[in-house]
């Protein structure tokens, strides 16, 4: 039997999901896609190539003016895939979509951090009450499968602490400062030219994106009930070439580290020994998980990219199916 | 309901399993333990503390002269945990125990590489035919959960290649040669003094242990039907301080790498860039998994140790339960 899914939000990640489904051969049928301007619905399966082309040419996937909420309410499907832009404070429209999906009896797979940061326990409660799955591997570290690893593979093994390099943009900037001795502004400019940093890089360089990931890990892996305000955060914009020089002389580098330990959540630049597993280069992400029995386990993967993120979404879809 | 298990083989790993079960609170009851001199059986649960003490004081866990095969045949239990010493060429007694367990309708969890290297497809066939689980995470890299990660977490994601640092003893020796510029013989002696290398280090330093792990990964993750003889192997004993100096000058180090790519299996020392994820220190193990959609994923963990290995066994037990 084929799984019927909707894709709600059709930016880079939503398009990546369509792309990945076209490249692979899984029993998954996309019965609807919605973006902010409308939707396309076909119960026998949306033509994904045509949808991607229409989006590219016209800026929208829509062939009808149905809204995302209309799709979630009225089109029969098993899994709603939520990939709209993140709104961290309130959860934004993603939160509305996920609530609606659970109300309609649909499983949810998402890459959208906002709803999880704003309303994690409410959403888990809704999923449980309706006996539905809620999967969000793609929210933390793109292709790095840390949540599913923690939940499934390490079963029986109490997790004591997690620390990680969880933002590829920051790590690219810091790697360049370390390698080349350049200033923060220079490395940021370079990252922006390459499309690694956004024109407004605030969410990355101020640590906001890392905070969101730490909150999601704290809630999902440690069973906490944390929110954005529970994290002590320092960004990377004040780090100087001199600080890197001092670190280097002592055998260290500087990384933006998110950590959860003894119930405390923190995001800050930290000295890391040069031969430490967290000393990774470029846009790679890596988490180090301290466990009771197995000692330290590390898991790394590409932190962003539409195909990589879509791959995490696909794993979650297939897990449900 | 509690899961009833037997522990067959009561060396470091078998004792680790008992230790881990005592430390944690899982619905698992050990109904029998066997070593080469006999067994202890108690259908209401073997007293694990007493069993560990008896082993330590008398050299055997036995209170009866039942053999391991007797236990597997005549004691009711769901899962046989096989931890006897490895015999790579024929599969040794481990192979006999696993065949017998499947014949009797018991699931198998093992840390014993020999039977998997010698008779992988036969054993998988027996498990399938009898509708039983066959789990062996502990055979590759101790606490590093690469097999379960590949099978479950990366579902939907075709794995293209794996390369890894899979032997902690070799990696310790090579790390010391790199850090201190000492000779192979010196670093090996040091590892032996610390108990990291065995008195006869052949299985580690000649690459035999890494070959076994590569064969198990090729068969389980790539669905190949490989054996020991299919791997092209070179050990580490010929590596000189001069080779390390040359590598270092060029920004490289030397690691013993096991790899599977395009159907080819290889174990050999290899130059690795100093900032590459495979440049890990000491007895840590790390594998880099190249996937079709998610790019490169890395997974690392402590490569040996009775508790760490027992933790992988416990994950497998709980997965079945």
What does this protein structure show overall?
The structure is a homodimer of 321-residue chains. Chain A has 321 residues and is α/β, with parallel strands linked by helices. Chain A folds into two domains: 3-141 and 306-320, NAD(P)-binding Rossmann-like Domain (Rossmann fold, 3-Layer(aba) Sandwich), CATH 3.40.50; 147-302, 2-Layer Sandwich (Dihydrodipicolinate Reductase, domain 2), CATH 3.30.360.10. In chain A, 41% of the residues lie in helices and 23% in strands. Chain A has helices at residues 12-23, 48-58, 68-74, 92-103, 113-129, 146-153, 168-180, 184-193, 202-205, 208-221, 241-249, 306-320, and strands spanning 3-8, 28-35, 38-41, 79-82, 107-110, 134-135, 159-165, 231-233, 252-261, 264-273, 284-291, 295-302. Chain A has a six-stranded mixed beta sheet, with helices on both faces. The first copy, chain A, has a six-stranded mixed beta sheet with strand order 8-10-9-7-11-12. In chain A, helix 1 packs across helix 12, helix 4 (92-103) packs parallel to helix 5 (113-129) and helix 7 packs across helix 8 (184-193). The longest helix of chain A has 17 residues, at 113-129. The radius of gyration of chain A is 20 Å and the shape is globular. The mean pLDDT of chain A is 95.
């Amino acid at each position: 039997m084929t799984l019927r899914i909707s894709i709600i939000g059709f930016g880079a990640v939503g398009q990546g999901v369509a792309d990945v489904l076209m490249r692979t051969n899984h029993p998954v049928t996309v019965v609807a896609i919605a973006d902010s301007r409308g939707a396309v619905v076909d119960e026998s399966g949306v033509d994904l190539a045509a949808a991607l082309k229409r989006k590219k040419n016209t800026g929208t996937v829509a062939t009808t003016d149905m809204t995302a909420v209309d799709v979630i309410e009225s089109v029969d499907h098993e899994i709603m895939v939520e990939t709209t832009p993140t709104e961290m404070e309130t959860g934004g429209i993603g939160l509305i979509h996920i609530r609606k999906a659970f109300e309609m009896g649909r499983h949810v797979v998402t890459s959208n951090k906002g709803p999880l940061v704003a309303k994690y326990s409410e959403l888990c409660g809704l999923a449980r009450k309706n006996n539905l799955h809620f999967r969000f591997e793609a929210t933390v570290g793109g292709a790095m499968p840390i949540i599913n690893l923690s939940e499934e593979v390490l079963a029986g093994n109490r997790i004591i602490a997690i620390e990680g390099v969880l933002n590829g943009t920051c790590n690219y900037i810091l790697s360049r400062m370390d390698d080349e001795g350049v200033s923060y502004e220079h490395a940021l400019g370079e990252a922006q030219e390459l499309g690694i940093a956004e024109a407004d890089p605030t969410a990355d360089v101020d640590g906001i994106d890392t905070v969101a990931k730490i909150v999601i890990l704290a809630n999902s892996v440690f069973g906490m009930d944390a929110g954005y305000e529970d994290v002590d955060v320092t960004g990377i914009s004040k780090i100087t070439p001199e600080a890197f020089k001092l670190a280097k002389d002592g055998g260290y580098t500087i990384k933006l580290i998110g950590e959860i330990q003894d119930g405390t959540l923190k995001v800050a630049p930290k000295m890391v020994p040069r031969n430490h597993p967290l000393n990774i280069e470029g846009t790679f992400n890596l988490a180090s998980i301290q466990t009771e029995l197995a000692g330290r386990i590390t898991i790394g993967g590409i932190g962003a990219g539409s195909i990589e993120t879509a791959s995490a979404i696909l794993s979650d879809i297939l897990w449900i199916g």
